[in-house]
Structure formats: C-alpha cells, structure tokens
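Contributing new records

If you add data, match the layout below exactly. Sequence lines come first and carry their own label; structure lines follow with theirs. Keep one chain per record. Anything else will be rejected by the validation script.
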Amino acid sequence: MKSFLLLAALLHAPALQVQDSTHSGGTLQASHVRIILEGSYATVLSTYRIDRSGEPLVFEAARLPGQLMIMRSAFGPGFALEAQQLVDVRRLTAPGGPAGVAEIHIRYLVEGDFSRIPIFVPNASTVAGEGAHYVEVLGAAEESDAGDAVPPLERQPDGSLAAIPSELPSVVSLPAATGSLPLAWIAVATAALLVLGSAGYLAQRMLRAGRS
C-alpha cells in the first residue's frame, strides 16, 4: 500500500526544472575572426564582445586530426583565460566577474593541416544581428575557389576573403587552390608510387635470377 501511495505521489508531483547551463556565460554580441595563412601555419586572432552574466566564461575549440594548436594569448579586461587541453577539445576558461560588456581576445597558431581551422566558441547565447559576426582570411592563394569554403567566403578588393555568417562557426573550412590536390590524396598517391616502384624492382630481380 505504501509503495502504491509513493508511486502516485511521484506521478502527480510537478516536473523538476533542470537549469540549462549551456548559455550561462552571457550573450555573445559580436565576434571578429581573422585567419592569417603564413606558409606552414595559420595565425588566428579572435575578438569577442560578450555581455557577461557574471558566471565563468568557457571557450572550446575542437582538436582536429593532423594539426597542432599552439596558444599565444587569451585575455579579457583585467584577467587571463586558463587553458586546458582535453581529449577532443581545447578549453579556455575566464573566471567569474562583474556582469557587463567585455571584450575577450584569443590568439593561437594552427600547424600541420590547416584546411580546417577550429574556432573557439563561448558558452554564451548568440545575438543574430546582421553583421554581428565577421570572418576574414588573409594570405589565401589567389587561384583558390572561395565558394568551396565554409562559411562561404567572398574575395575582397584587397585580395582577402571574408564572410558574414549568421552565427559564429566552430570550424572554418578553407578553400583549396584550384587544380591542387588535398594533402591526404598526395600522401596516398606517393605511397602507391613507392609500392609500385618496389614491386617493379622485385620483378626485375626475379626475372634476372631466372635467366641466370
């Protein structure tokens, strides 16, 4: 009887309200991401304008295979962000502080395969205002097809590439030069040529041995 009464009480009890902590850091009002391609690496300079709620801010960027991310600086007005490297993401944490608008600056390098550039995204809700988010790429090859990029980039008069996405992207996929092959394809082709060369050499050795 007691079990039945307990079950009835649970069924009629009001549902628990679970606090959503996904956007606890405040509101992302604007962002500016500048990617500078320089030979074998890319420099990323990101600026965020966030109306802080007073809670800690957490920025996360995906760790992508084939590349190395090197932090240079991460700071806001009067504080530095603490860096933490996890299995799948790189995390930066800003301490809790007074509520209000603050600018956060993050600078890092991406080495290796930078066809996709990870971007730090804060735990803040996004304002979908027109022109609030701006992505620009400097140093891309002139023959690259900007239409293949994500978000779509447009060639500017100064030769740079730029996009105004509706929200801050977590990854920027850069366009490859027209007529060029991806690095992964080049590696596979090189390995295949080495295998074919070795097989041909062994076949010649066996043929010569059979004639002698």
